[in-house]
Amino acid sequence: MPQKIYNTKTRKKETLQPVSEGAVGMYVCGITAYDVCHVGHARAAVVFDVVFRHLKACGYNVTYVKNFTDIDDKIIDRANREGVTIRDISERFIQMHDEDMAALNVLKPTVTPKATEHMPEMIALIKTLEEKGIAYAVDGDVYFSVKDYPPYGGLSGRNVDEMVSGARVDINDKKKNPLDFALWKKSKEGEPFWESPWGQGRPGWHIECSAMSRRYLGETFDIHGGGEDLIFPHHENEIAQSQAASGKPLANYWIHNGFVKINAEKMSKSLGNIFPVREIIRQYHPEVLRLFMLQSHYRSPVDYSDASLAEARTALVRGYTALQQMKETLSRVAVEVSVKLEKVHQTYLSKLSEMQEKFDAALDDDFNTAQALGCVFEAARLVNQITTAEKKMPAPVKKVILAAAKTGFAHFSDVLGVFLSDPDVFFDSDRTIEVAKRSLDSTKIEALIAERQKARQDKDWQRADEIRQELAAQHVVLKDAADKTVWSIE
RNA sequence: GGCGGCAUAGCCAAGUGGCUAAGGCAGCGGUCUGCAAAACCGUUAUUCUCCGGUUCAAAUCCGGAUGCCGCCUCCA
């Protein structure tokens, strides 16, 4: 099925037709490296990671570029506050960003360029704009002249005249027009600077993305992404700069992810409701956060809360429970050369392949991860039916069906970036996190479980139940299997 | 003021013209179990904020009302 993408530029779902057949160029605006990543960054990263993974799974040769802004007012401020260099700051937070992303199973983009490493490209681009009469230099600053680029406002659906009358733009005497934006800023005393035809200074924010996307993807590429807040002014300005310079469209498809909200409010420093990724993954397995994001459509806003993460955890546990049963059954049953499948058994196999088709179709339809997850959970139910409920099914038949399910799940995991752990490793890790969160003592818990096992062997059900209740009070849930008792935190 | 989005069960959330309105959480009944837990089976929206319209047919398209939200200033 052809890939459909909702294009912010046209506000419609369109069929992806790459510039060059079989290849996709994608640029996504990355972070400004001045602080740790929060849930919002995580969402954007996960959304475009799934786009990346899915397009690759579809056979496209994807070049995914995600930049780091490593020169910016906020970085300078922080460097001054801490008395270190801007490089110290940006390197520190890029490193932490990479750690967080790795924890969330976010694949490394093909290229992760940094602004400071692309000064010549930026300066060249600004020069081109200046030569074309679309940019003007004033006292060491260079501005983009919005009135000299008539299509301005095309992406965000804004009208230049109305924006001027709206007048929520900063006052700056150097600008000819309040909507004009800086391409190059003269450096102030003590600030880091680069040499340029306009003197010592540093680039404006928007120009770096124009310069780096051009460098790695060319003048026109396929997909440009970012958070919905970037539509205006950032992406609008990128389009203006790049297209004014090249005379060609910058990107054919514009994808924007929705925001993460906290209690229906915007996350912001002033509200004090920022949730850093590294804090969240101390409370929950990273895949919990990832699953939470994938449960809703990437363009909708999501409301982050502890309750919704707890719910996502339960769902994740459900999936891993199926995987664990599958693994266990597969390891137990010996391979049989020829297995006769009856019609009922064939039904399972066809249901499985139906789930896989629906899964791919969901992602083809504007990366509908929520719908795709529906297929994953239906497949999980099917696995559970095979492993537990279908007692009459011959073991070799189970093996054949579960092997097919395993292949299907491998695909689901590969594309969504969840259910990637070994189930036993996942449960261990989940339990460790929960034990720490509730300040429990696993040694004591296990001692009680051992005591209960003895009581059970002696058929002292009263004592066994007493211990179970005692543990339940600490949120410890027991699961009695034939030979052992496993425990988890509810 | 300008631009845009959203409203589906107790909660979260897909579905955007027509088969039984996915899936997850929670609830209820059953199977299994010493009892549980997990799993499985069954059940939980005659209906998609409200009012009109188009159509043989609408949650889905059009118009209006109400409510919530985002962007227009750094922001994923």
Which tags fit this structure?
single chain, 490 residues, alpha/beta, four-stranded parallel beta sheet, four-stranded antiparallel beta sheet, 15 strands, RNA-binding
Topology:
Elements: E1 4-7, E2 12-15, E3 23-28, H1 39-57, E4 61-66, H2 73-82, H3 86-103, H4 119-131, E5 135-138, E6 141-144, H5 160-166, E7 181-186, E8 201-203, H6 205-217, E9 221-227, H7 231-246, E10 251-257, E11 260-262, E12 265-266, H8 277-283, H9 286-294, E13 302-304, H10 306-332, H11 343-364, H12 369-389, H13 395-416, H14 423-437, H15 442-457, H16 461-472, E14 476-480, E15 485-489
Parallel strand pairs: 3-4, 3-9, 9-10, 11-13
Antiparallel strand pairs: 1-2, 5-6, 6-7, 7-8, 11-12, 14-15
Helix pairs in contact: 2-3, 4-6, 4-7, 6-7, 9-10, 10-12, 10-13, 10-14, 11-12, 11-13, 12-13, 15-16
This protein binds one RNA strand of 76 nucleotides through helix 1, helix 5, helix 7, helix 10 and helix 12.
Descriptive report:
- With 490 residues, this protein is α/β, with parallel strands linked by helices.
- 50% of the residues lie in helices and 14% in strands.
- The strands form five sheets. The chain has a four-stranded parallel sheet, with helices on both faces. It has a four-stranded antiparallel sheet with strand order 5-6-7-8.
- Helix 4 (119-131) packs across helix 6 (205-217), helix 6 packs across helix 7 and helix 10 crosses helix 12.
- It binds one RNA strand of 76 nucleotides through helix 1, helix 5, helix 7, helix 10 and helix 12.
